[in-house]
Write a structure and sequence with these properties.
This protein is an alpha/beta fold and 456 residues long. The protein is 34% helix and 18% strand. The chain is built from 18 helices and 15 strands. It has a 5-stranded parallel sheet. Helix 14 (281-292) packs parallel to helix 15. The mean pLDDT is 94.
């Protein structure tokens, strides 16, 4: 797929991959073997009929292709950009055994972009209401998927979102250069045309609780609030000015448009020497964002080696191309500040890899005496998130794990409270967009069965 050149894109927030031209999409689609027992479908958390949508591409029936995708996936333009197909559907492709798998994600993006950019089609009329109301808390991938599926069954669905814009992590977490917000908005508008209602600036769990929603006439509630409580390093100096959680840093820049200052007057310390801590996709997003905000040096500090990084290979590759400095096998032990309480440096411990830990990755262990100080003026901590505890605290009969995640059945997404279902990161912990969507689909099916039968 064509991309912006690294030296150009590191100075803008425009999307990096530019999309397939038609001839390339047709050529790539022709590689699909149309297997009778497609393993790729088994690798898709929402069960997209991959051979069917690719076959439609070879016939140049792009709208038919999109229709085949949308039978099970309501956010194809999003998934085509940010889902880790390389470890899901593409990993199962039979061609991957001897060569490159079919580029399923890029083809999914192609047909979604075709419909949006070239031939906007009139959406189908909303399904007539069956008179039953359902509340969805959280407008991230899990919530949007559940809402779309339920609206397609005739339910009156209202999605409650705490922030001022819907989309969850798709709008506050993923940068514009990976997922343009206009695309998210287009997908959400398609759901609204199906009859889904959105209610923003509504923090369920404080002024309103889950029990209040039942009192308002909702027959079932789906909780898809994600994992938005940031983890920190717990090292000295972490309260200095200039130290951000990745959540705050990316939310300010993505949702609140700090990168478009002064058109959007959102404060953020841009920094000339920025350190990002972590090795996942959020760390890559933060590091690449800092570069685009004008940093001279961006250090990606990770306590293991490149091999152990959990980020997508594509994101690591893009970060390397753009000039991010990878400080591998380093672990922060202290932040250093000046008399005004501003961050000025970090002290890191050199690490080496020992025996594997519970995750299967080799455990990092300190190299005695190997400490180094590096001047920085901004630090972004991107080492993971915990579930936000607000709903759990005001709905104690839900049932939670020792980590604070809501406990839900893996197939029905039922919680310990009658009529309440939950899915996505609030149940599983931080996972992928498509896995959250898969949970939303399971929940929608189970909610329908519950409201039809009355059985719990």
């Amino acid at each position: 797929m064509p991309e912006q050149e690294p030296q150009v894109r590191r100075n803008n927030f425009s999307e990096v991959p530019l999309g397939y031209p038609e001839d390339t999409a047709l050529l790539e689609a022709s590689r699909c073997l149309q297997c009778k027992k497609p393993a790729c479908v088994e690798g898709c958390p929402v069960g997209v009929n991959i051979p069917a949508f690719i076959q439609k591409i070879t016939e140049k029936d792009y709208l038919g292709s999109l229709k085949a995708i949308k039978e099970t996936n309501s956010l194809p333009a999003v998934c085509g950009r940010v889902c880790p197909q390389e470890t899901q559907c593409e990993e199962r492709c039979i061609l991957a055994k001897k060569s490159e798998p079919v580029a399923i994600g890029k083809l999914e993006r192609y047909v979604a972009d075709y419909e949006r950019d070239i031939q906007r089609t009139k959406p189908p009329a909303p399904i007539p209401s069956n008179g039953k109301k359902i509340a969805v808390i959280g407008s991230g991938p899990a919530g949007l998927t559940a809402a779309g599926d339920l609206a397609g069954m005739g339910y009156e669905v209202t999605v409650f979102e705490a922030l001022h814009n819907p989309g969850g992590v798709l709008v506050y977490g993923i940068p514009e250069f990976r997922l343009p917000k206009a695309i998210v908005q287009y997908e959400i508008e398609a759901l609204q045309k199906k009859g889904v209602r959105l209610s923003v600036n509504r923090v369920i769990g404080i002024a309103e609780t889950v029990n209040d929603l039942f009192d308002q006439g909702y027959g079932a509630v789906f909780i898809g609030t994600g994992a938005g409580l940031p983890k920190f390093l717990d090292v000295p100096g972490e309260n200095l000015q200039g130290v951000y959680s990745a959540n705050e840093y990316l939310t300010r820049i993505n949702l609140m448009k700090a990168y478009m200052f002064p058109k959007y007057d959102t404060p953020v310390i841009k920094g000339k020497n920025v350190a990002v801590f972590g090795g996942g996709n959020v760390a890559m997003d933060s590091a690449r964002t800092a570069l685009r905000l004008g940093a001279d040096n961006v250090y990606l500090v990770y306590r293991r080696s490149r091999t152990e990084m959990p980020a997508r290979e594509e994101e690591i590759h893009h970060a390397e191309e753009e000039g991010i400095n990878f400080m591998l096998l380093h672990n922060p032990v202290k932040f250093i500040g000046n008399d005004q309480g501003r961050l000025t440096a970090m002290e890191c411990q050199r690490m080496e890899l020992g025996a594997p830990d519970d995750s299967g990755r080799r455990r990092p262990v300190p190299v005695p005496g190997a400490l180094a100080v590096t001047e920085i003026d901004v630090a972004v901590v991107a080492i993971g998130n915990d579930p936000n505890p607000i709903i759990q605290k005001t709905t104690p009969d839900l049932g939670t794990s020792k980590w604070g995640n809501i406990i839900a059945d893996g197939e029905t997404m039922k919680t310990g409270k009658r009529g309440v279902f939950a899915g996505g990161d609030i149940v599983s912990g931080a996972a992928t967009v498509i896995e959250a969507m898969g949970a939303g689909r399971k929940a929608a099916k189970a909610i329908h069965e519950y409201l039809e039968s009355g059985l719990w």
